[in-house]
Amino acid sequence: MSDEEHHFESKADAGASKTYPQQAGTIRKNGYIVIKNRPCKVVEVSTSKTGKHGHAKCHFVAIDIFTAKKLEDIVPSSHNCDVPHVSRTDYQLIDISEDGFVSLLTESGNTKDDLRLPTDEALLKQIKEGFAEGKDLIVSVMSAMGEEQICAIKDIGGTK
After folding, report:
1. Gap between the Cα atoms of 62 and 41, Å rounded
2. Nearest Cα to 151, choosing from 122, 131, 130?
3. Fewer Cβ neighbours under 10 Å: the N or C end of the chain?
């Protein structure tokens, strides 16, 4: 036995992993996949036939769920791909600050103040106009791989 002490540095978060493995051949259109370390929604999948060297290949065309950039990847269908854990949570909009952050009401009654307004112009306009008119707005926040962004808005009626 050695007297050396071993220190292992963990790069992972405590709790759930940001992604899970899934066989490339089982990922379908409208599913999610990680391409170039970005969480993406699959918009097109094509599978090539088994070639001279064995594996059939899956060609994925996907859109980054946060930046809307188009990404592509080709993976042997028998290999595993990373699939992000994507969740959607609804919050009530309380306030919009001058610096572009929003204040949201969580289900537990606390506030969440670490989210910026979305970069999507149409959604941004809807939120700002609805808020200015005093509407009760519910925003849907998409989160995956440690990132969060407002992706949709609903008006639940009622004016002040």
Report:
1. 5
2. 122
3. N
Q: Token match 């004016």: residue?
A: 159
pLDDT in tens, 99-126: 889 999 988 889 999 998 888 888 989 9
Determine the Cα–Cα distance for residues 89 and 140; give it in Å rounded to an integer. 6
Take residue 48 and report the two structure tokens written for it: 């090539």
Q: What predicted TM-score, i.e. pTM, was given to this entire model?
A: 0.77
DSSP structural state of residue 33: E
- Determine the number of helices (DSSP H) and then strands (DSSP E) in the chain: 1, 11
Buried b (16+ CB within 10 A) or exposed e, 80-119: ebbbbeeeeeebebeeeeeeeebbbeeeeeeeeeebebbe
Count of other CB atoms within 10 angstroms of residue 58: 24
